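Known limitations

Structure tokens in this collection are predictions and should be treated as such. Users comparing against experimental data should check residue numbering before alignment. To illustrate the layout, the record for SDR family oxidoreductase is reproduced below. The input appears on top and the generated tokens appear beneath it.
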Amino acid sequence: MQGLTGRVALVTGGGVRLGRELAESLGRAGATVAVHHHGSREGAESVVATLRGMGGRARAFQADLTRAESIAPLVEEVERELGAISILVNSAARFDRAPFVETTADTMEACWALNVRAPYLLSQQVARRMLARGGGDIINILDVGGAFAPWRGYSAYGITKAALTHLTRCLALELAPSIRVNGVAPGTVLPPETMAPTVREALQRRIPQRRFGVPADVAEAVLFFLTGPAFITGQILAVDGGRMLESAPA
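Generated tokens:
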């Protein structure tokens, strides 16, 4: 698969978990990949080594996206080292769980800084360059717990993903026709290893496909937006095995 040959993709949080799969999938599809990380240097370098081993082009870039002043230098460094960014995947995120009455202001601020402000400012920096060059794609990694229905115990996380969902639609409207902006909303993918077996089994029974998702499911959805029909923008694709059907109106 070489559908992204010649394109430079910046993937935030690309050294671990879902971000790692996204970075590797884009590289396998032919993209040159800028693998962003904050503290996961070893993971990011491992992704780079994997892609280079397949004959691809990739490089790791470090930045603390919660610091607004770090965003413009990151974009400038990526474009200086790898070339013009034509794909941005906003994947880096915090996933904090706490009852609403116990959620601290610090947790709320930390979720907001990484899950909303960072993709807002990063998309802004990249979009300015994309517009000057004729276009590109922005993909936001959302969550069914923010895009479609609330999850108990994740108020801080959920409202930030809801905000990012709305931002996806705002940017699709404002940056058209040259930049397409879409979102992928995973369901339960990579559940915590500490999840009790009974909880895991009960959760799986609530999913019509009777399984949890895997990172490749999400990566394939991202590739659909990037290599599939060009007449799609502002859409949110749930990758949840049908779980949100339980929340749909009759």
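For this record: The domain at 8-247 is CATH 3.40.50.720 (Rossmann fold). The CA atoms of residues 169 and 234 lie 5 Å apart. Please report discrepancies through the issue tracker.
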